[in-house]
Amino acid sequence: MANLKETLQQKIPVWRDEIRSIVKEHGSTVISEVTIQQAYGGMRGVKGLVCDTSLVKPDAGLIIRGIPVLELTERLPEEIFFLLCTGELPDEAALKDLQTELKRRAEVPQYVWDMLETLPADSHPMMMFNMAVLSLEKQSVFRQKYDEGMSKTDYWEPTLEDALNLLAKIPALVTGIYRLRFNKGDRIAPNPDLDWAGNMAHMFGIDDPEGHFADLMRLYMVLHTDHEGGNVSAFSCHVIGSALSDAYYAVSGGLNGLAGPLHGLANQEVLRWIINLRKQYNGVPTAEEIVKFAWDTLNSGKVIPGYGHAVLRVTDPRYTAFHNFGKKVCPEAEMFQIVDVIFQNIPKVLQEHGKAKNPWPNVDAISGSLLYHFGLTEMIFYTVLFSASRAMGMLSQLLMSRAMGEPITRPKSVGTQWIKDFLAGQS
User: Fold this and answer.
1) Which pTM does this prediction carry?
2) Residues labelled catalytic
3) Which residues contact 142 (CB under 8 A, 6 or more apart)?
4) Is 1.10.230.10 the CATH classification of the domain at 266-373?
5) pLDDT tens across 56-112, in order?
6) Which of 151, 349, 370, 415 could form a disulfide with 294 if both were Cys (CB 3.0 to 4.6 A apart)?
7) How is domain 77-264+380-403 classified at the CATH fold level?
């Protein structure tokens, strides 16, 4: 198999021709209708985007380029990035080539560290990460090539360069910010013999004699890579990139969305709920105790964090992947046992409660607890890890947009008066 760039060079012309043919033959075909409720309600369910990298099916969960995510849990994040970009998994030679490229590009310029060290000591880690990504814009190959002048059909090539350059630096940025923000000591040098996520685990400096934390990092980075094109981070990145802003501007915008409490902070909310549960019952609760705690939460007007999903109507397969990992690696750990007893009882409570469309757990119901178990206890940092993984999805989607020559995103908006006049005309 060819390397990443060569594979894209072979596939992109075929994809372009296929899209041109679909638009030419079926461009006027209606694929969605919009209700007033959807217009006021965040466009939920409106089919108005094309995303070929991944799909979320209500009854099956995340599917990456046609492959259910549970079939990818033994893969490395580098393999998933190759899959997202090309639609196929790399062979051994292509994987090694990509890993070599990422290691070659991994050094973070000193000015980035100098900038981060000037920030207030209590700065939020997500702001620090976003500042670091944005500061790297100085090195954008796309901006340089665009300013020099190039054909629209070639936009994808410098976008790929930016994507690889940014992705390569993420492990050092994530761990460097962690050690700086939480006073963990000097940055740890990368190990050239390790893979992308394995190096990230190494540079955290967390004691990991059996390599289980490194395995968790690999799994975490795989499971959070992509989730269709309509979530806040992916859509924000897409809209910004559609203006031909380079990858650093676009990903930075996506990260700003990911920092919001309704998007990237869910696993923190779950973990706080679990810690309160553990504190109230001095350890792992019984089934009766968790049911009581759940009803107390619901009766106070709150939700059970980590249960339910905007799209899914089954247990999130990413939850299943993490749960399988926990059963294999740390079945006796208190945090995992609490998550397990919650899983055994909460769906029945929510079904009895009757208001939850989906009483099953999503990925956030367990991810934070596993991080906490392995010593990564600083909850405000968890969204940075989510961002490190999701950057792969954002970058691959941006690359596809450039390769397909997608235009600037510009939906039409109307006002409430227009809605009122429209309704009056219907009567």
Assistant:
1) 0.95
2) 263, 309, 364
3) 155, 158, 159, 161, 162, 246, 247
4) yes
5) 998 999 999 999 999 999 999 999 999 999 999 999 999 999 999 999 999 999 999
6) 349
7) Citrate Synthase; domain 1 (1.10.580)
